[in-house]
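Entry 12.
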Amino acid sequence: MRSEPAERRYDIEVRVAELRQLFNAIDPSPFRERDLDPRAEQFLVDWARDLPTDGPWGLVVHVDRSAGAADEAAILQEAIHEYFSQRVAASRRELRQLFRRGRVSLVIALVFLTASIAVGDVVGGLLGDGRLSDIMREGFLIGGWVAMWRPLEVFLYDWWPIRAEGRLFRRLSTIPVRIESRRTTG
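Predicted 3D structure (tokens):
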């Protein structure tokens, strides 16, 4: 009887001299709550974007020193999970703000579109029948529809990258972390 092959895990690999290099040096928070160094975060996020989404991910941190405390990997994992959980929350806030801005823009644009159509009809009526009247009416109509550009852009396109980033951060907020020391204690 053949056994099923194990599911392939995709690893993000980082090499540092000390674990503290992964975290922002000016952040005064305790280790578990400290922000990742911006370069370390960008490295992890960029690598994660390149990983296939059909399998589990892992983070392997290669440290250029002897093995540390037994719970070092658990503490690092908790710190990374906490950081990316905060990024998930920030991404959700950004998406809510974008949609709020989109709703306000939509109301403004609809009012402007309605006013543009009304003004175009009034101006067209004052000018009577003719090419100039048609041009003025169409000009106001086009101006009104141009005002709709931004709200439509928000609701059709702008939210995709924020949502994708949030999903990536959510995945990174649960990633298992393993530490491998290059030098073993002699």
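Annotation: The chain has a mean pLDDT of 88. The radius of gyration is 27 Å.
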